[in-house]
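subagent[fold] <- orchestrator: predict structure for attached chain, return tokens only, no commentary.
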Amino acid sequence: MMFLAVLLLSMLILVDGDLNRFEGALLCLIYVLYMTYLIQHREEIRNEEFEIMEDIRTESGIELNWTGASYFVMLIAGLGLAMFASARVVDSAAGIAIELGVPSAVVGTTLSAIGTSIPELAVAVLAAKRSTGVAVGTLIGSNITDPLLSVGIAAIVNPIEVTNFSLFNKLIMPATLFCTALALVFMWTDFKFNRQEGCILIACYVIFLALLYGSI
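subagent[fold] -> orchestrator:
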């Protein structure tokens, strides 16, 4: 599903170089269908999550005694802070692009992407120390939600136009599809990433950055 989400988003942009409101609604609809599938299989998923949480309690010795209301308050507060921080990151990235004369696509795939991924990275690192399954699930979930729901809502609110279609077509889209497929291949064997595979993925990102800045 993760690869299909990225592929669908890439293909929609590839058609005419933008995402209109209809295409944004289509992405959101697919996300809703995906969530519907998860809800229909919630018992199976809940049992797997229960086993994972039991492993976390056993390994860390942490008792999760917070109430549902506490989790809800933390969720709302976290979402609010994330939205505020994301807005500041986008504004700052746009300012950097203007000041340095760097294409917005370059800034968006580097500074903005790294800045908005820091919370996700923190969750993945903390989860990986306790449960590999939680860390991988976090990464997969975000890489399904971002291209479908996040981009879909953004396109509905304001249609998205790719400013540098040539760069997107020749480098960004192929690199995204390749790295997504590579990550899935690594994960396919035993649903986890080892250090060697992690180093390979980081090396791929470094190569991507080198090619990206070399194309400016």
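orchestrator: received. Logging for downstream: The first helix runs from residue 2 to 16. The longest strand covers residues 18-19.
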